[in-house]
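Changelog-adjacent note: as of this version, every example in the card shows the full chain rather than a window. The one below runs 69 residues end to end.
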Amino acid sequence: MENDHLAGRVRAFRKLKGYTQQELAAKLDVSVAVLGSLERGTRKPDPKLLERISEALGISYADLTAESQ
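Full-length structure tokens:
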């Protein structure tokens, strides 16, 4: 369940910032498959990758990983 929430946030922020999966994956130097599986919640997120995603999207790590109340 936790992965699903985070997956949705990664996807939402990516779209909000106007990146395609291909563009963001290239910027992060990861495959589209890795980013896609993270966005689907089928891959356990690596904290270092999440930090890189937050930097690439120009948001804080806390905003990216925030739990819904």
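Structural remarks: The helical segments are 2-16, 21-28, 32-40, 47-57, 61-65.
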